[in-house]
Amino acid sequence: MRSGWLKRKKAEIQTPTETPSDLWSTCAKCHEVVFERDFQRNLKVCPRCGHHHRLTAEERLEITVDENSFTEINGNLAATDPLEFPDYAAKLEASYRATGKYDGMITGSAQIEGIPVAVGVADFSFMGGSMGSVSGEKIVRLMEFAEQQSLPVILFTASGGARMHEGLFSLMQMAKTSAAVARLDRSRIPYLVVLTDPTTAGVLASYASLGDVILAEAGAVVGFAGRRVGNQELGARLPANFQTSEFQLEHGMIDRIVQRKELRPTLAYLLRFFGAEVEEMEDADQSI
Amino acid sequence: MQINPFDFERPIAELDQILVELSRPEKRREAEEQGIDLEAEIQRVEQEKQRLMRHLFAHLSPWEKTQMARYPQRPYSLDYIRQVFDDFMEMSGDRLFGNDEAVVGGPALLEKKPVMVIGQQKGRDLKERQRRNFGSAYPEGFRKALRLMKMAEKFNRPIITLVDTPAAEAGLGAEERGISEAIARNLREMPMLAVPIVTAVIGEGGSGGALGIAVGDRVLMFEHATYSVIPPEGCAAILWRDRNRAAEAAGALKLTAQHAHCFGLVDEVLIEPLGGAHRDPMAASATLKKALTHHLDQLREIPVPELLEQRYQKFRQMGRWTERTETVEPE
Q1: Which residues in chain B touch residue A171, judged by CB atoms under 8 angstroms apart?
Q2: Using a CB-CB distance cutoff of 8 angstroms, which residues of chain A are in contact with residue B179?
């Protein structure tokens, strides 16, 4: 057989399984090709243009909280389909399988530079981080837990808004989460928000806009209505940075834009300013 | 009042046409000549019309309800305020930027007792519609509403809010001045206001724009009003990339008062005059007045700490979820 000489005769010789896509990453914005290892080391921020790529909840926690300090709570809450909305049940099942999660909002307790916190992280890969009953309930339970334990709350937001598949139930999560923030305020529990790409609509118009401090990642889409809706209505008059972190900073809606690698020390600094104390010295040693 | 019928109202319009026809003088003469009992005929058509209307308006689809909620002749906030309250004095401005005419509000008397009434206001003609931005509030509107609510709290007056908006304004100016912050702030402040709050959705309950003044101890909804997380057109555009499938989307969203009540998300459905509030605004106003008075009387009896706890728990329990015992593995 002519093709016979192409076959590997010795079993121990392996064809490299790493395809170029495993070795390289391409920046979604400037299309620069970057060594995957460098890309990961740079926390998925493009070394050339500084574009902050989206992170999964796990990736976010890994770079934010002290190693092995995160304990998830309420991870078993899952959506129902109260409206029997077209294709919702199937979409949920597909999302469970794709992400290994029951919801896009992951909540729990953790430490940041040794400071105990209640933390929630939205994962955009789960149905666009949309807020339905489960996300709302998990956020409220996290805030109530934080209030009981006197823990500061940190939320990383990423969401297209309320989840239309649950109709009015989703809309009411805006009221429910905001009411929980009011109770944190009353108890003088620090509440820090980090807006990540993208944070829009019903989430921005509720708990995401209510932090004592609101930070945002550079270049994130942050706005009320979808950018496309705005464009249709207003044509060319829109500024280039419309509905981004930079636009919101310019108009006084957020406190700071923070580079991803600066987030952890920035949060720790603010937590200390708000009066947090490091729980145990050995935990503090874990911080880099 | 000239009513422009929607498709589903055509059979009624046809009977109306017959009634007009029958009451013409020459018809009367004709009937007399031929010995026909015209009065009996008119009565028969009138009864048929009533029967048809009762059937039709009891079985409106969610999309037909959407059209009812948006009916150009439907009573708006100021119409109800004039009929339900006495001595309304409109207050203006958010003390920060401007006066948004998509929101009206001020002190008024309800059955001789002072209340603060705040409503979202659409316009009747083109000029007024533009002036009031079609009932879509800018941040200033939400901030004016909150300012008036805080004023009410300060002087221990209950708050009544009337919801009727397609959505909050979403353009450049709204974004520049923090439309999200304005809505979010109201959602955080309303649960803590130490006076009773009664909300009535009188027309369109358009998502965050509606909710921004709707965190009440009681939330009432007119029979043909809608309350939705997203307009049906927007939902159809996202789901099927086709805004023309809005009727289908309205059905999927279950945005009617009956659904919201069934889900436990609104407390009471206010029955409208047959054919909708616009066919008899006085009767609709009387219904609203009775309901507002009834609920306020109840709420006034509740001590403030309890009232606030009940309000918190009311919204706290909204949502449907389940607890899974098995873990899920990613593929």
Answers
A1: 207-208, 211, 227-229
A2: 205, 224
Q: Which residues contact A197 (CB under 8 A, 6 or more apart)?
A: A52, A54, A124, A158, A217, A219, A220, A221
User: Among candidates B189, B97, B111, which has minimal Cα distance to B148?
Assistant: B189
Compute the distance between CA of residue A58 and CA of residue A65 in angstroms, rounded to an integer. 11
Which residues in A lie closer than 8 A to residue B178 (C-beta atoms)?
A: 209, 251-253
Q: Does A36 score more than 50 pLDDT?
A: yes
Q: Compute the average pLDDT of residues A151-171.
A: 97
Q: Which member of B174, B178, B184 has the closest CB to residue A178?
A: B184
**Token duo for residue A159:** 């969401």
Lowest mean pLDDT among A89-93, B32-36, B132-136, B174-178: B32-36
A189 touches chain B (CB under 8 A): no
Strands (E), chain B: 103-110, 113-120, 159-165, 197-206, 218-222, 226-228, 268-270, 321-323
Please check whether residues A62 and A175 belong to one and the same domain: yes
**What integer best gives the mean pLDDT of chain B?**
95
Chain A contacts in chain B segment 51-90 (CB below 8 A)? none
Q: What is the mean pLDDT of residues A235-260?
A: 92
Half-sphere exposure of B262 (CA within 13 A, CB side): 9
Residues A192 and A107 in one domain: yes
Q: Which long-range contacts (CB under 8 A, 24 or more apart) does B126-129 make?
A: none
Residue from the list A137, A185, A225 with its beta carbon closest to the beta carbon of B319? A137
Q: Same domain, yes or no, for A114 and A216? A: yes
pLDDT band at A225 (very low <50, low <70, confident <90, very high): confident
| Chain B residues near residue A239 by CB distance under 8 angstroms | 172
Q: What is the tens place of the pLDDT at every residue in B294-313?
A: 999 999 999 999 999 999 99
Cβ distance A136 to B188 less than 8 Å, yes or no, reads no
User: Is B80 found in the same domain as B34?
Assistant: no
Residues of B in contact with A169 (CB under 8 A): 263, 265, 318-320
Q: Both A32 and A148 in a single domain? A: no
Q: Say whether residue A89 is in contact with chain B using an 8 A CB cutoff.
A: no
ipTM at complex level: 0.95
Q: What's the domain range around A105?
A: 54-285
Residue B328 lies in a domain: no
Query: Which residue in chain A is spatially nearest to B315 when comparing CA positions?
Result: A176
Q: Which residue segment(s) compose the domain that B295 sits in?
A: 67-316
**Which residue has tokens 């000549």?**
B33
Q: Is some CB atom of chain A closer than 8 A to the CB atom of B238? A: yes
Model pLDDT, residue B86: 98
Listed in sequence order, the residues at least 6 apart from A199 whose beta carbon sits closer than 8 Å to its beta carbon are A157, A158, A159, A208, A220, A221, A222
Q: How far is A41 from chain B (nearest CA, A)?
A: 25
Would you say the C-alpha torsion B276, B278, B279, B282 has a positive or negative sign? Answer: positive
Residues B48 and B79 in one domain: no
- Name the domain count of chain A: 2
Encoded tokens for A119: 């933390």
Residue B318 and residue A206: Cβ atoms within 8 Å? no
Indicate if A45 and A79 belong to the same structural domain. Answer: no
User: Same structural domain for residues A28 and A136?
Assistant: no
The percent of residues in chain A predicted with pLDDT above 90, rounded, is 80
Q: Are residues A78 and A195 in the same domain?
A: yes
Q: Do A49 and A85 sit in the same domain of this protein?
A: no
Q: Tell whether B325 is covered by a domain.
A: no
Length of chain A: 288
User: Are B44 and B81 contained in the same domain?
Assistant: no
- How many domains would you assign to chain B? 2
